[in-house]
Amino acid sequence: MEQWFPKIPIADWMDAFVNWLTVNLEAAFDGVTTVLETLVEGMVAGFSYIPIYVFIILFTLLAWKVANKGIALFTLIGLFLVANLGYWEPMLETLALVLAAVFISIVLGIPMGIWASQKQTVKQIVVPILDFMQTMPAFVYLIPAIFFFNIGVVPGVVASVIFSMPPTIRLTILGIQQVPADIIEATEAFGSTTSQRLLKVQLPLAMPTIMAGINQSIMLALSMVVIASMVGAPGLGADVYRAVTQIQIGKGFEAGLAIVVIAIILDRITQNFGKRKKQGGTA
Amino acid sequence: MNNEYKIKVKNVTKIFGKSKKAIQLLSEGESKQVILKKTGATVGVSQVNFEVKAGEIFVIMGLSGSGKSTLVRLLNRLIEPTAGEVFIDGMDVVKMNKEQLRNVRRKKISMVFQKFALLPHRTILENVEYGLEVQGIPKETRKNKAMGALNLVGLEGYEHQYPQQLSGGMQQRVGLARALANDSDILLMDEAFSALDPLIRKDMQDELLDLQSTMQKTIVFITHDLDEALRIGDRIALMKDGVIVQIGTPEEILMNPSNDYVERFVEDVDLSKVLTAGHVMKRAEAVSVDKGPRVALQMMRELGISSIYVVDKKKTLLGAITASEAKEALDRNEGLAAILQADVTTVRPDTFLTDLFEKVSTAAIPVAVVDENNRLKGILVRGAVIGALAGNNDAINHLGGMANAEVAAAQPNREVKITWNNGSQKYQ
Fold first, then answer.
1. What beta strand segments (E) does chain A contain?
2. Which of B115, B162, B178 sits opposite A281 (nearest CB)?
3. How far is A206 from chain B (nearest CA, A)?
4. A179 has pLDDT over 90
5. Which of B114, B115, B134 sits opposite A192 (nearest CB)?
6. How far out from the chain centre does Cα B6 lie?
7. DSSP assignment of B106-136, as one string?
8. What are phi and psi of B381, to 5 degrees?
9. Do A193 and B102 lie within an 8 Å CB cutoff?
10. Domain B5-108+184-269 - what CATH class?
């Protein structure tokens, strides 16, 4: 192959590109780092301020209100277990990291999804990028992330955002485009502007689908916590990672179990939140 | 010039797909099929012309794929016309910019959809308010208007329910109320009643006619159901393959189908639900009340009939007399007023045949057709009614406007002589 066609130096280009970014956009990256660090640390500090039993009760009540008794009971027992095993502080760090990543996914993802749903060209550009974001192995962009954001929680958040944002965007596009054509036609026939159509009709009707996307984003962000710990993000992931490197099977299992508990609680609560929205129409 | 017409459609064409070559071929008179083969473009609506008068129910009828739903969407540009002009109140909608078009949609044209197209996440009231809401009308005003519209369609009390909680018929009432709430002059109804079951459909048709008699909207009504078209249409346009094949009153379409297609379309129609007393009545011979019994007897003898209606100078129906009664009156030297029987069966000219069979079959003398002022317009003879039902064109009066006896009188070849005793007729 090399005989008749020289190797395309993609690796060299990428190195040069990352170097260029590191040098030229340093101020911007520093800004992002400061903001994200403050956000996550602020959240952890806030969560830690709440006494454990109050926190557990609040979450249980939330689960009860949004979902049902069973899930409330699971939340109660699960969080108690996490506290009992001594993973409360790492759990809060993980929660903060996940929530920060999901918050950014929503803030960037939903407007992007709306835009892509309105303009076919935007959609045609965005969708391949989403494929890229979801399939490119996370380790690959963790390396440059360290260059840009140093070691710690910030590259972890960034990696989680990259990995978890696509479902929010995809399902926002899907939800809006799934609104039946005859309803869109009716809103047009009564002289709606584009923003009226979007705000009064498309977004409310797309809400259950968008919520499903957010739910998926949360789950994907959680699945990134172990990987994020490799670049120094604190939390349950770090405990799992440490257990793996030191071959502590029992400790690894405990930390893993804590992640599972958090994942199930967040999943059920957000899932039911989406369903509740859906039922809002028929209630 | 356009003022007498609310909507005027000139040479409107819609081609789906590559339109340039297709338009060229269309103007050369190529058919839809040939154009599809040559260019891959589908002709949805082809060079259509029609006008709709203010206050008229204009029905566009055709089978599915005939382009009728496309055509109605060209009127408010839910589908962009490829060529042609659509004038609403003399303004060409096709040339309007987005802002102007939006205003026309908000203020002048409302639409009712086949599948209701209600917003599932909003209550009935919020659905009806939608058209007003997008105009930025204050909450109180739009609520009042929406409640008014809901009352019109008989849905008061349902305003806080959601669309899924209502039956199909009720949902479409909401659709209708939503269109009415805007106070627009023009109502586009795209197969509005097609998704409803037959009984509800008939109710809705009646209700629409009822509302129309007070509101006088200009309605463009799309349907594939001929009975529906004949029932509610002031005029009907029949479409086939994107072309209007015939435009006319229900009666014109039925009685003078312009080609085989229309004829096949209308051959199964139940004429008794289309034809009215005005269509089948015959010229009434009547004697004026100030004339004496002698004149009445003379007329009966000349006409070969045994009784006759009595009217006053304004042709107001007073009653009937028989030959024997007239004779007795003559002997006793009494006037007609003293002997006439005031108790006679009457019907209005717009009564459908289906509703007057019983009266005609049980009456001893031909049933009188009178207008709202009780003026005698004609009489119903059994033979003529049956002849009309059999599709006998000669038995039907082709009436432009309101039926009247003079029309029949102007066609002496159709005049009939009547012997009342056996109810049969003899042609002169």
1. none
2. B162
3. 11
4. yes
5. B134
6. 18
7. HHTEEEE-TT----TTS-HHHHHHHHHHTTT
8. -110, 135
9. yes
10. alpha beta
B422 compared with B123, residue with greater pLDDT: B123
A244: tokens are: 């793996």
Tell if the CB–CB gap between B134 and A182 is shorter than 8 Å. Answer: no
pLDDT at B323: 84
Smallest CA–CA distance, residue B247 to chain A, in Å, is: 26
Contacts of A283 in chain B (CB under 8 A): 162
Q: Which helix (H) or strand (E) holds A162?
A: helix A153-177
B-chain residues near A185 (CB < 8 A): 78, 113, 117
SS3 B49: strand
Helix (H) or strand (E) holding B370: strand B367-370
The residue with tokens 């935007």 is A122
Fold of B277-427: CBS-domain (3.10.580)
pLDDT by residue (tens digit) across B298-355? Answer: 888 888 888 888 888 888 888 888 888 888 888 888 888 888 888 888 888 888 888 8
CB–CB contact A187 B113 (8 Å):
no
What's the confidence (pLDDT) of residue A43? 92
CA distance B316 to B318: 6
Of all residues in chain B, what percent carry a pLDDT higher than 70? 91
Asked if the model's pLDDT at residue B268 lies above 80, the reply is no
Q: Would you say residue A28 has pLDDT above 90?
A: no
Predicted TM-score (pTM) of this structure: 0.73
Structure tokens of B335?
């006037």
Of B114, B117, B188, Cβ closest to residue A183: B117
DSSP state of B6: E
- Name which of B105, B119, B133 is nearest A189 (Cβ-Cβ): B105
Q: Where are the domains of chain B?
A: 5-108+184-269, 277-427
Alpha-carbon gap, residue A202 to B246, rounded angstroms: 41
Q: Does B113 touch chain A (CB under 8 A)?
A: yes
In sequence order, what DSSP letters do the residues of B51-111 get, joined into one string? EEETT-EEEEE--TTSSHHHHHHHHTTSS--SEEEEEETTEEGGG--HHHHHHHHHHTEEE
pLDDT of the residue at B298: 85
| pLDDT at residue A165, as a whole number | 93
The average pLDDT across B85-99 equals 92
**Polymer length in residues for chain A:** 283
Q: Distance from B352 to chain A by nearest Cα, in Å?
A: 37
Of the candidates B109, B130, B164, the beta carbon closest to that of A282 is on B164
| ipTM, 2 dp | 0.77
Q: What is the helix (H) or strand (E) element at residue B320, kind and residue range? A: strand B317-322
B295 touches chain A (CB under 8 A): no
Task: Categorize the per-residue pLDDT at B96 as very low, low, confident or very high, splitting at 50, 70 and 90.
Answer: very high
Size of interface A-B (CB pairs under 8 A): 69
Domains of chain A plus CATH, in order, are: 10-279 (1.10.3720.10)
Residue B276 phi, psi (nearest 5): -115, 170
pLDDT attached to residue B405: 36
Highest mean pLDDT among A108-112, A225-229, A232-236: A108-112
Q: How far apart are CA A213 and CA A202, in angstroms?
A: 16
- Residues of A within 8 A of B165 (CB-CB) are 282
Q: Which residues of A touch B102 (CB under 8 A)?
A: 191, 193
Distance from the Cα of residue B7 to its chain's centroid:
18
Give Dmax (Cα) for chain A. 70
Does the pLDDT at position B411 exceed 70?
no
What residues contact A280, with CB distance under 8 A and at least 6 apart? B121
B77 reaches A (C-beta below 8 A): no
